[in-house]
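Fresh eyes needed here. Kindly weigh in on this sequence plus C-alpha cells:
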Amino acid sequence: MTGISAELETIKDEKSLFKGYEELQGVLYKVVGRIGLRSTIALLTGCAEEVKSNIGETAKRQALPSFILFKVMEIYQMDEMMLYKGTLRPCTDARKICYHLCSKYNGYSRSKIGLLFGGASKRKGQDSISRTEEMLSIPQFNKMFCGNYMTAEKAVIEFLFGK
C-alpha cells in the first residue's frame, strides 16, 4: 500500500507542477504581448541577476561573523579557545575587535554577538564595543590595537564588497 500511495503523491506533485508551469507560461505570453520579446528577455535577465546578487549578499552576511572570528584569530595568531576564554590583553583585544566588527558590519544586537562568544552577556558586548570605540578614537596610545583593527576591517570590507 505504501508504494501505491507514494506513487499517487508523485503524480499529484507532477500535476501541480505542470499546472504551475502552465500558469507561468500564460503570464509570460501576456508580458511578451504587452512589452515585446526583447524587453521581456531583458526584464527576466535583470530579475535573475538581481536575485543572484541578493542571494550572494545574504550568504556573505550570514558567513561574516565566522569570517571575522577566523580573521582575528589569524591576526593575533591564537586558537579559538584563547579567543573565547583568554584573559591576557591580546585575547581581550581580539574579542573587542570581533564584537565591534560584527556590530558595525552586520548590525547584530549585543545579545546575538554575545551568543557568538559562548553566551556572553549583552552588557559585556556593549562594554567591549564602547571600549573599542574609545581605543580607536585615540590611535596614538593604542597603535598595536588600531593596526590590528584596521587589518581586520580591511579584510572584512574586501570580503563583503570585493577587491
